[in-house]
Specification:
This protein is of the alpha/beta class. It is built from seven helices and seven strands.
Length: 171
């Protein structure tokens, strides 16, 4: 699997976005919360009952990419929308009616500017060289593994946020 955006473009996005006055995802201690991760696969339609049950029990709902729009349309209160792609077209996936946006710093600036998200940084070789030195020195943030797929990355993202119970739908 290869990224859908050339590395030099993604790196430019990282440098530009990480210099903005936006919060960065910080490390969280493990807790008993439940993360409900929902991708856009066709199987999600068969999982509405399970998603509803977990959400009603206090789970936190993550809509991955455009799945956040579908979840809101279905009447769900979405806690987080996660977007990873660096291509400009990803800005069309933003769902404004979520509690918080979690976007990778490699996202296109149009995507970042449209939502004022919390940024997370991928655990890529040389990542910290692209970030503002004063923020690197400050520390506390996490580098997220997972590669080029938002579904895998979201599992690592939820784990970094302290979730140890993670349910996957629409993968």
């Amino acid at each position: 699997v290869l990224p859908n955006t050339p590395e030099d473009v993604a790196n430019k996005n990282i440098s530009e976005n990480s210099a903005k006055d936006l919060p960065w995802l910080m490390a969280s201690k493990a807790h008993d919360g439940v993360a409900i991760l929902c991708g856009g696969g066709a199987s999600i339609k068969r999982s509405v009952g399970d998603i509803t049950r977990l959400k009603n029990a206090g789970g936190k709902l993550f809509g991955l990419n455009g799945a956040a729009k579908w979840l809101v349309k279905e009447g769900f209160e979405v806690d987080y929308q996660a977007i990873l792609d660096a291509k400009q077209e990803s800005s069309t996936l933003i769902e404004p009616n979520v509690k918080e946006h979690l976007f990778a710093s490699q996202c296109h600036p149009d995507t970042i500017d449209a939502a004022s998200p919390t940024l997370f940084h991928m655990n890529n070789i040389g990542m910290e060289e692209l970030l503002p030195p004063e923020k690197v020195k400050q520390g506390g943030y996490v580098l997220i593994g997972g590669g080029v797929c938002v579904g895998i990355t979201a599992m690592v993202l939820a784990y970094a946020m302290g979730y140890r119970k993670i349910h996957l739908f629409g993968y």
